[in-house]
Amino acid sequence: MSGWDGLPLRDDLRGLSPYGAPQLDVPFRLNTNENPYPPSPALVAALTAACAEAAATLNRYPDRDAIALREDLAAYLTVESAAAGQVLGVGQVWAANGSNEILQQLCQAFGGPGRMGLAFEPTYTMHGLIALATATGWVRGERDSEFRVDVPAAKAAIAEHAPSLVFLCSPNNPTGTALELDTIREIHDAAPGMVIVDEAYAEFRRAGVPSAVTLLPECPRLVVTRTMSKAFALAGARVGYLAAAPGVVEALQLVRLPYHLSALTQAAARVALAHSTELLASVEALRGQRDRLLTQLPALGCPVVPSDANFVLFRVPGDQRRVWESLLEQGVLVRDVGLAGWLRVTAGTPGEMDAFLSELGSLMKNTRIGAA
Ligand code: PMP
């Protein structure tokens, strides 16, 4: 029995469960790739002041084109891609409530009934779910044994299905693997439609790993999506954005709800961007803990996938669900992404990583798990 029994729900939604990782009140929450560092008291004060100012005008709708925020985001991306000499303007940037809403708007504008999306799994589950919710068809491409996108196989899938949208994810969730620019360029040139590179974790990439933003001048159907939820430690505010050709931004304005981004959200995001040096300081620390996981997990007997993100996919003996449950019993919540034999852990504070590594170490010594 479901609450929707008897309701005229779409047939393709019947029987599904809502997506979402468990939100449990445990000491070590390492399952949703959040940034563990809360805003500093100075930043909280600045956010409060900006929200108070915005609150005084809440009788009015917000700027529906979020121009000031988009200018700030364009300036941030311009600084970030300075090495490539790229200058982004407000017309190439669009913002919404989290990058999930950006992805939804992309599916609404470029997908829909009779159209296809293609992704290379395992990847971020929401890509397929947003396609489903927007009635966009879905084709599952595969990755090679090292979770890389194989370009000839990708081109063959594109030739076969002629997708309106190809979803790439770099660094990829849940594997942490980043794509080479040549791979993205080749896929863009082979694809008949839009190519989305989800760069939710871009700021955590290792030195020398380029962003797809640098490809925008040569790839007119490329869209790079970003978020303030991870590196900027602003998951609770819900701010995502994209960089693309101005025509893409114009297309999204056809499907976005008017005034989708509240005045409070726009104000908070602008304050966070004004404090980006302080906020992004945590990225260095988190990269350090990610690298610590990459060396210490194998030492415990858990092989890892090299990661350019703030999380690591690691192999466990036997049934990963049992390991997940045993860690949870000790107050450590990691992510079972549904990949047999693998779990994903978010890089957190040094203390969180001490707890995780020590609990996992004990489990690995425990013959029950180790022998499974
Ligand atoms: N893309 C990827 C790859 C993600 O992992 C996430 C969040 N887990 C998102 C997009 C969505 O993030 P948000 O909506 O908070 O911007």
How is this structure best described in words?
The chain has 372 residues and is α/β, with parallel strands linked by helices. It is built from twelve helices and eleven strands. The protein has helices at 41-55, 67-80, 98-110, 125-133, 151-161, 181-190, 246-255, 263-274, 276-299, 320-329, 350-365, 367-370; strands at 28-29, 93-96, 116-121, 137-142, 165-169, 194-198, 222-227, 240-244, 311-315, 332-333, 342-346. The chain has a seven-stranded mixed sheet, sandwiched between helices. It has a two-stranded parallel ribbon with strand order 1-10. It is globular, with a radius of gyration of 21 Å. The protein starts with 27 loop residues before the first strand and ends with a helix. The structure holds 4'-deoxy-4'-aminopyridoxal-5'-phosphate. 4'-deoxy-4'-aminopyridoxal-5'-phosphate binds at residues 33, 98-100, 124, 169, 173, 198, 200, 227, 229, 235, 240.
Number of strands: 11
Give the strand order of the largest sheet, numbering strands 1, 2, ... along the chain: 2-8-7-6-5-3-4
First and last CA, distance: 36 Å
Biggest β-sheet strands, sense, barrel? 7 strands, mixed
Secondary structure elements and their pairing?
Elements: E1 28-29, H1 41-55, H2 67-80, E2 93-96, H3 98-110, E3 116-121, H4 125-133, E4 137-142, H5 151-161, E5 165-169, H6 181-190, E6 194-198, E7 222-227, E8 240-244, H7 246-255, H8 263-274, H9 276-299, E9 311-315, H10 320-329, E10 332-333, E11 342-346, H11 350-365, H12 367-370
Parallel strand pairs: 1-10, 3-4, 3-5, 5-6, 6-7
Antiparallel strand pairs: 2-8, 7-8, 9-11
4'-deoxy-4'-aminopyridoxal-5'-phosphate is lined by residues 33, 98-100, 124, 169, 173, 198, 200, 227, 229, 235, 240.
